[in-house]
Amino acid sequence: MEFSEHIKTANVEDVVLRQPLHPPSRGTLCITGHHLLFSDREEGSSRQVFLLLRNIDAIEKRISGSSGTITIKCKDLRVLQLDIPGMEQCLNIARSIETLSCLDCVSEMYPFFYRPSDLSLQDQWGLSSPEKHYTQMKELQNKWRLSTVNKEYTLCPSYPAAVIVPMDVDDEALKKVAKFRQGGRFPVLCYYHRKNGMVIVRSSQPLTGANRKRCREDEHFFQAVIDGSDKGYIIDTRSSQQAQQARMTGGGFESKSCYNHWKRLHRQMERGKALQESLIKLVEACGDEANNMDRWLSKLENSKWLSHVQTALSTAGLLAECVERDGHSVLVHGSEGTDSTLLISTLAQLIMDPSCRTLEGFLALLEREWVQAGHPFQQRCAHSAYSHARLQQESPVFLLLLDCVWQVWHQFPLALEFSEALLLRLATEVYASDYGTFLCNNERERCALGVKEKTHCLFQALLRSRERELYSNPLYEPTELAIWPSVQPQSLQLWRGFFLRWTQQARHLEEAQEEIRNMIIEWGKLALS
After folding, report:
1. What value does the CA radius of gyration of the chain take, rounded to a whole number of Å?
2. Residue 222 to residue 187: CA distance in whole angstroms
3. Count of CB atoms situated within 10 Å of the CB of 51
4. N or C: less crowded end of the chain, CB within 10 Å?
5. Cα–Cα distance, 257 to 328 (Å, whole number)
6. Tens of pLDDT, residues 83-107
């Protein structure tokens, strides 16, 4: 596609930009295939705004006489206003933004064109792989193996080419288990707890249906997971009623009679449309300028966002407790196994495993549990909170994860090697990025488009020395202990750094945190000298 076809007016002079935390400024507006660029032309100012068009969630235009105003609402929750002289110019710019911000073709997105001078396409792509993860866990190699049964992505389109499965389950059995699980997502190992040898396994729901179908290979797989232990736990992220209803549409759950060594625990977690609408209500509450505290608190509560945070942390805590304290292996699934399943397995690993709390370890965890595990980023993050488009498969599950991690960071300020700045960066990148890490919905799609050969990896870029310094926590003190976040309502707070990031209050808070950070770094240098 020629981007120029969609750009009737490439630049406009004498445009007034109004944006949060800055006074209005007058300058030149330029539009390219992927960016909106504003250059301040006022004397003594060199300020520029460089906005990725993919970051635009919605635009609103208003014509008044011979000029017009475009309001741009971004996926990172910024709201910009452009006062443009000339009605035709205003309409042309609006049309270009509407078209270019919603490109469906992944290979036309900016990561395929981004070529910074300090990065090479020959650089290693990614931090982890199933093969590397397996070789790092020598203790389990006598009971678990690396299978390449999915090497062509035909058995399960949303899984990576290699997965870790029990040694006693061969590839032929895996093919039968895959047919018995929604989307082919048969159980795979995602975490090995070195302290006691227990594991976390995740999958999608079994396709038992109304006739209570069975799969002997699936039942044998479950036995192989606990291998001599007295029992295991299944954490189903649906209510018992939802699981029962799923049988009417071909889904279902593991019955006690067929999986008699496994205890099923139901913890209902909202997903899909309910979660997206919760985000929309929260952002609307945060943008309410009425300054009425009672009304604000009522809107915050009605959004139910903090309730979703509480449920996610509580369920992850239950999972971690089963493994760490009770000493039993756990299988996690909901329906598809691509959303809430990944959310709680990630949080549980953060709670239990000190290596996941380092900067590199956390990024590798996200790569394994979200990118490689098949979270459909392209579908879930197509729009954020402002879009006027009809909801389809959007859902802010990854943003909910980052909020939960922020709650842990807030409650345990010494336990994580990374800072809030990293979480904010990831919250922006997942919706609009220069990098290819969050493109597509799974590894099969990335492989077909050559994402790893033609784009740069965000996680690798975040580990460069300059970035590492920016995103590190100067208070970090490693601990081998599990960290158990409180889920009491008074312990959970609104993530102001994200949801109120474009307000004056958040800017003051950010400046104060930066000052404290610099003081701690200076004290550290003095202590070493």
Report:
1. 24
2. 9
3. 21
4. C
5. 20
6. 999 888 999 999 999 999 988 899 9
